[in-house]
Description:
Blueprint: H1 2-25, H2 30-35, E1 43-47, E2 52-56, H3 99-104, H4 134-142, H5 164-169, H6 171-179, H7 182-192, H8 196-207, H9 231-236, H10 238-248, H11 263-278, H12 291-320, H13 324-327, H14 330-343, H15 345-357, H16 364-368, H17 378-385
Antiparallel strand pairs: 1-2
Helix pairs in contact: 1-11, 7-8, 7-12, 10-11, 12-14, 12-15, 14-15, 14-17
Amino acid sequence: MKRTASLKAISISLLITLIAALIALKTPLITTLASASLSLPQYRIEENQTTASLQLDRETVQSESNLLADTNPESPINLTTSETPSRISSNQTDIKDMACAKIWNAYPEGGYAVPDWLFTPTKALDLQTNEPYSYLAGKLLLNGLATAPACPYNGLLPTGFASQCGLEQIRPQVNAWQNQFDEGIYNSAVKNAVPARLLKNIFAQESQFWLGQSDDNQHFGLAQITEGGLDPLFLAYPEYYQLVCTDVLSVETCESKYAELSNQSKGLIRGYFLRTVIDTSCPDCPNKFDAKKSTDTIDIFARLVVANCEQVGRVIVDITERVPGTVSTYDDLWRYTMINYNAGSGCVSGAIETTYKAGEPLDWLHVSDRLNGRCSNAMGYVEKVSR
């Protein structure tokens, strides 16, 4: 056992060293990726009397209105939800053009009402929040971006979080910091047709908007993306994979699809992409992060959300042979997408398959009850981002 663990540690160390060497040889690619014209993932459900087949159909998209191809599903099953929509957006008359709604062919019940967490306001200013983020406050104090001289230990706790005194002392800075990305969040949400408030909720839960280097050096950016979390992006948007592949692997190897690569090659691609594109930490920058690069990564993350929607759609079609919107609701499909992002597709597919085989409806009440083991932790995550 000790020898196996030692070999594993050596392998990981060599992989990280190789990625670091590759990064040192290459210019960061964020500008190239941000300016590249990338099409959005889409699929059409083609049904006969007994089966449904799923195919990914890609084409260049010129506007949000033709984002994804329309589908012709069966008559939808009316499922009830315990959540009453708390907001009707004045611009949600176009929700039929939202990316994930098109992917699932699922739309809010009762007209175009949407719950607050799936709401996109009419302007970025309406995304402003005023949350007491003690983790963010601690990072600001620890990095000298704010001070609390009236508090013991400059307002810091041994955990690295801000004390209550420290948080109260620098609350204006905390408020300003958490709202400085609103314009980028709003623009990326509109551009990629995803809910703006959900994007901000995810960033709040993942990082509290701190963009400096993570404590474990395994989570990066506003969304604290990990290597494993990049798979849906590369599968749904192969352009991202192709743009960085030849920086890491041979031209011949890069002729293969991402899914066809060896695990080692995938690891090299993911590690390189995370550290050159997603990681926006910058110790020498005034605020400890690269502002321009962080804005570009918001757009990438919006596409990662769409990629997770697409993956959830595939899971449901594979299990039920039905269009997602005919077996679950718009709100609940978003909840499954958040599980997929936080805990992985294995948790989503396992819970949905078990629920479906039990003859139970695919609503949040029944599917969440089937999240077992480590997957059950995702329920708390969904609860927080859907507030």
